[in-house]
Amino acid sequence: MALSAGGGSHGGSDGPKYKVTVPQALAGGEYTLAKDISQQADAQVPHDGAGAHDIKTVGGQYTSGTKVLAMIGLYGSIDDPDVAVDHTIRGMKNSGSTEVAVPEKEFTPKGGGGPVTCGVDVRRTDGQKITMPFCVWADSSTNVSVVETDTADLAKDPQSVDLQEFADKTAKVRTEVKKPLG
After folding, report:
1. Is the pTM of this model over 0.85?
2. CA proximity to 79, closest of 179, 19, 162, 5
3. pLDDT less than 70: residues of the chain
């Protein structure tokens, strides 16, 4: 894969190669789609800017027993995937009620497919602490975040989250949502 230098506004002759989809199930069928949130997500994300061009946004809320998994995906032309990951993580923390419980770091999923950046945030909502492990990845066409909560244990000890396991789950999700364009 050739990387273009200069990042001209024409978006590169190759253009994006992948899109992000919202399948009916994720993580090998572990989660089922409860709600397609693509319209709301698309309305909240700029379609150009910060090194991203012609961006489309999709998303889904999935459930598995007491667990809720949210997937928000952007696709289009992404100039610098590392910057995209940083912007995504910064955006997740900018709510004011979110604190970093386990700082993000890069994990190599057992299933392969390139590294993902994962961490654990704690959000305070109406006095309730909610532990939210997350993973993010980006490439030249896609930028996706996956966040999980467990309604049976909302205030779970952030240190007890197995981020390698969540990175492995995220890699499964990546193979299920990232599809070739065309």
Report:
1. yes
2. 5
3. 1-14, 50, 95
